[in-house]
Automatic annotation (TrEMBL):
This is Beta-ureidopropionase. It comes from Engystomops pustulosus. It is found in: Cytoplasm. Its EC number is 3.5.1.6. Homodimer, homotetramer, homooctamer; can also form higher homooligomers. Keywords: Cytoplasm, Hydrolase, Phosphoprotein. InterPro entries: Aliph_Amidase/BUP, C-N_Hydrolase, C-N_Hydrolase_sf. Belongs to the carbon-nitrogen hydrolase superfamily. BUP family. It is an enzyme of class 3 (hydrolase). It holds the Pfam family CN_hydrolase. Pathway: Amino-acid biosynthesis; beta-alanine biosynthesis.
Amino acid sequence: MSGELRSVEQVLEKYIPEEERREVWRLLYGRELRSLELPGCAVESASQKGFELKGYVFDAAAEQLRRPRVIRVGLIQNKIQLPTSSPVAEQVNAIHKRIAEIVEVAAMCDVNIVCFQEAWTMPFAFCTRERLPWTEFAESAENGITTKFCQEIAKKYNMVIVSPILERDELHGETLWNTAVVISNTGAVLGKSRKNHIPRIGDFNESTYYMEGNTGHTVFQTAFGRIAVNICYGRHHPLNWLMYSLNGAEIIFNPSATVGELSESLWPIEARNAAIANHCFTCAINRVGTEHFDNEFTSGDGKKAHHDFGHFYGSSYVAAPDGSRTPGLSRVCDGLLISELDLNLCRQTNDKWNFKMTGRYEMYAAELDRAVAPDFQPNIVRE
């Protein structure tokens, strides 16, 4: 069933009476969002090319001293295009071609910033523990073929691109990193953000390939707002979101690769909670499909050896600082989710709820400093 259920929203629409559905959706997703009117050419192209296209609008209140700061973001989720046993170059080229098709539709819809899924140029092979051929997918963040591909389409469409790849750091002993490259709408490499937290759970024990990143909590000032990239497992760490927010992020992208049995019940909650807690927009992207590998592998958790991780469940969505969120994309097929955001909503929500003003960061910092000391003693009062 995990790879057959198209979406939670589809089930709700099918079984909840129409007169009650709006209230149920309000309770589940916050305020009702307007659907974004999408160009007919984009809708037709998405249909012809076999991917889902959805669009929603996050409004903000009109202000007297600030004009609206309206931008559009696009989230892309996709399956790999060829079997994992295909030649590396052919797999990369096929995925590039697929993404180019979807980005073209994003451009038709006037998207300003687009983000791809984690390690989008390859199968999510890190948990097989095999070195070859998977390390051959690694590229330079500055001048690899994928970055050059992204630079071309960024300039062509005047679009910021967030491109999460397996990075080969040629200047530091060809070390591998899980990295998101941020390409400016001018085509320049604005910078990169490496994955801060590495999972060690079941199949997802990725430290065989790369370790925790060393770029901290970088925020990128783009022509369309301040953005950050919290890669995959980092979404489970509230302080990781917080630090991007404290550095000024208005939109935090969370490109991921995660499967149903492991995390699907957590997925709708974490990015939305982060948007609320940090007065910013969050964008959660997950790949789709089941990826088969020729050689069996084990998880070290007592389960039998297997050839796949399970079903990548897609369900990409955008959440706003006021707690509202879009419905998710499909659990089973490629898709492009477009959201029109008024970034003024970040400050407006901040002024209403005051989480940052009332946060006791100096107290937390002092107590965290004590908590990481070797001689730490918990502050517990006993009789």
